[in-house]
Amino acid sequence: MEGTEAVTSGVRELLPVLRDRAQEAEDRRQVSAETVKSLAATGFFRLLQPARFGGFEADPATFFGCVRDIAAACGSTGWISSVIGVHNWQMALFPDQAQQDVWGDDPGTLMSSSYAPTGRIKQVDGGYRVSGRWSFSSGSDHASWVLLGGIVPGEGDAPADFRTFLLPAADYTIEDVWHTIGLRGTGSNDIVVTDAFVPTYRSLSFGDTARCICPGQELNTAPLYRIPYGSIFPYTITTPIIGMATGAYDAHVTYMRERVRAAYAGVRAAEDPYSQVRVARAAADIDAAWLALTANMRELMTLVTAGEKLPMQLRLRVRRDQVHGTELSIQAVDRLFENSGGRAIYTSHPIQRFWRDAHAGRVHAINDPERALSMYGRGEFGLSVADAMV
Fold first, then answer.
1. pTM metric for this prediction
2. What is the tens place of the pLDDT at every residue in 58-109?
3. Domain named Acyl-CoA dehydrogenase/oxidase N-terminal: which ranges (predicted)?
4. Were both Cys, which of 120, 175, 221, 242 would link to 190 (CB 3.0–4.6 Å)?
C-alpha cells in the first residue's frame, strides 16, 4: 500500500506539468518522451505489473484513479497512460517466456497495441506468420513491443481462434497517419508487419482471458490477474474520458466564476441559475460514472481475493456501467461546452480540447453502447451470452 500511495502522490505532483504541456502534445501530435519518462519515474506504469518484475500488483481502482487524474490534466496523456499501462496487466497473463522476453533485461519496457484483427495470420510449425496493417496504436513511438489482435483460421469445422500476438519493434514499422480532430497528442499511428514469425508462446487466446485460465497465472498468482480481460480493458478506455470530463468541469467552473455575460446586460455567469443547474447536472453525471467504476472494481477484487468465481451477471454489469460511464461523461462535457459561451471555441480555451478529446475517445469500438447493453439485457432475460464477449 505504501508503494502505491507514493505513486499516486507522484502522479498528482506531476499534474501541473502535464497540464502545461497539453497544448504542446496536441501541436506535436505526440506526448513528449519527457512526459512518458516522468510518468515512469513515479512508478505509474508498474502499478499493474507483476511483483516479480518490480511491479506493485495494485488494485485496479488505484490505477484507474491515476489515469483519471492524468486525463483531467491532459486528455492525450491520460489516454496513452491508460492503454500503455494496462498492457503490463495483460502481459502478466502470457507464458513466462514471453514475459522474460519483454521484461527480463528491462522491467520498464513498454508496449503499445492494436487489437482489431485486421492482419493476416497463418499457423506454422512452432508459431504463426503475421502480416498486415493495424491502426490506432496509441503511444506506439514510446513502446518497443506491440500487442496485435488476429484471427487464426480453424481447420475444417473447427472455430477460429482470436488471439493477441506479441512482436518486438524490429518486426514492425510505424507509419505516421495520425491527423485527427481529437486525441491529437496520442500518436495513435499504424503498425505495419511484413511476414513476421511469432512463436506460440508469444500469443494469447482471448478465449482464455475470458475464462481466466491463462498460462501466466501459474507464476503471477495475485488476485488482480484473475479478473477477466473484458472487465479490465473496457474501463481503460472509459476512465480517460471520465478524466477529460473532470478536466472540462474544473476548467469550466474556474472560467465561469469570472465570466460576465455581455448578452444579458453584464450578469455574472456564476449568478445565472440556469448555469448553476447545468454545472450541477454535469457534476452528477461525472460522479455517477466514477462511482460505478470504483464500486465494480471493489466488488471484482473482493470476489477474486476470496477465490470465488465471478458471476456472469457481474461481468455483464461491469460492461453495462462502462459504456454508460462513457455516455454520462460525454453528456457532461457537452453540457459544459454549451454553457461556456462563444469564447469556448477559441483554441486557447482548454474546454474545447477536452470536448474534442472526449468525443474522439467515444468512438472507440469498446464504447459501442448497444452491443454492451444488449448483452446485459440478454443476461437479464436468461438468454445465453458468449464468455469471449465479456
1. 0.94
2. 999 999 999 999 999 999 999 999 999 999 999 999 999 999 999 999 999 9
3. 18-103
4. 175
Specify the pLDDT at position 306: 96
**pLDDT, tens digit (0-9, with 9 covering 90-100), for 224-267:** 999 999 999 999 999 999 999 999 999 988 887 776 554 454 56
CA gap 182, 216 in Å, rounded: 36
Rounded to an integer, what distance in angstroms lies between the CA atom of residue 265 and that of residue 249?
25
Cell reading at 279: 454545472
The model's confidence at residue 379, banded by pLDDT at 50, 70 and 90, is confident
Task: Provide φ and ψ at 231, rounded to 5°.
Answer: -105, -10
Degrees, nearest 5: CA angle 221-227-233: 125
Residue 24 amino acid letter: E
Q: How is residue 23 written as a grid cell?
A: 497544448
Closest CA to 200 of 152, 145, 146: 152
Q: Which burial class, exposed, middle or buried, applies to 3 when counting CB atoms under 10 A from its CB (0-12, 13-18, 19+)?
A: middle
Q: How far apart, in Å, are the Cα atoms of 206 and each of 132, 149, 211?
A: 20, 9, 9
Backbone angles phi, psi at 363, to 5 degrees: -85, 5
Instruction: Check residue 54 and give its pLDDT.
Output: 96
Rounded to whole angstroms, the Cα distance separating 325 from 147 reads 26
CB contact at 8 A, 138 and 25: no
**Rg of the chain's alpha carbons, rounded to an integer?**
21
DSSP structure class, residue 122: E
Q: Which of 193, 183, 230, 4 is nearest to 81 (CA)?
A: 183
| Cell numbers describing residue 209 | 482471458
Q: What does the alpha-carbon distance between residue 136 and residue 366 come to, in Å, rounded to a whole number? A: 13
Q: Residue 388: its pLDDT value, please?
A: 40
**Three-class SS of residue 166?**
strand
Please tell me whether residue 31 adopts helix, strand or coil conformation.
coil
Locate all alpha helices (DSSP H) within the chain, ordered by sequence. Answer: 2-20, 22-28, 33-42, 60-73, 75-91, 96-103, 206-211, 229-258, 273-305, 312-338, 350-362, 369-380
